[in-house]
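Listing S7. Sequence submitted for prediction.
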Amino acid sequence: MATYTGYDRTARAKRAGMEMLVDLIEAYFGLWNNGTLVVRNMRGKSKPSVHSTGRAADVSWRGGNYRGTGNYADCEKLCDFLTENAEELGIELLLDYWPRPHGRGWRCDRNAWRTYTSHAMSGSPGGDWLHFEISNEHADDAQHYVDVFQRLLGDPPKAIKTPPARKTARKPAGKDPWLQVGSKGDQVKEIQAVVGVEADGAFGPLTEAAVKKWQAEHDLFVDGIVGPDTYKAMTDPSTAVVADDGPSAADKVEDRTEAAPTPAPAPAPEYPGRPIRNGWRGDVVKAIQAKVGAQPVDGFFGPKTHGVIVNWQTANGLRQDGVVGPLTWAKMFG
């Protein structure tokens, strides 16, 4: 379960990941940007607001003279989407001011909504906007949000401006190597040779595109960045996929014994259309438990199943989040 960050530091400028996430919400859900980065204290308190970090935003469904539809149901649809995909989107907090008696709140560390029975936040009930906060993980990575929305929702109903390839603000702590747009040197030449572009040692947009293609072909998280997992997959011979060149000469010797017919494989289950995580129940969970060796196969996605899935993802070179999203599902069932 994720840890809630809250205020950690004041940002010097708007953060690309958050700004792109808000643009995508406008394009796909019809709510509009009611404010992101602003350096101030929390209303009525002496503590800094998370808006000061550049990781908080308000989006409104207010209609009339404003750009929203005036329909609260659009806010509910957005809330469902953000909570169902909270891991990938880095959602840490949602505050919905509209419902009576005093609004409701969702936090990553409880992974559930709480309806407030006493006054807990300014603007409730009846506030026609949603406040949300994200983690630092993708707050500076606009392309991450473009890719996630595209994969989950398809093409946006209206155009958005996709940012050019850019270097992330900083290398995450403990991640080595970390090769991305703007990186230079022998390690870049090494991975350029693997992905099939000119090995000039300069990581530019062409190298990024080739890395994304290579990651997709090898069932890795597709972000165009060569972090520790991608680098190991590229350079460690033990992770290489060995091609099957057909039967050897010995295999071609005629076997005079009539072989028993091979039974047809059972059809793969169908992906349910959204990530499967803690709290799910049903036959889909049973199929996952059987695939990864979780016991018992009871159809309940709890902490034990989560832990076994994390181990399975580690062994298969996938992102270790314990969530069965599209990439993990494809690796499991093809």
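Caption to Listing S7: primary sequence and predicted structure tokens for the chain studied. The mean pLDDT is 83. The beta strands are 32-33, 56-60, 91-96, 104-107, 112-115, 129-134.
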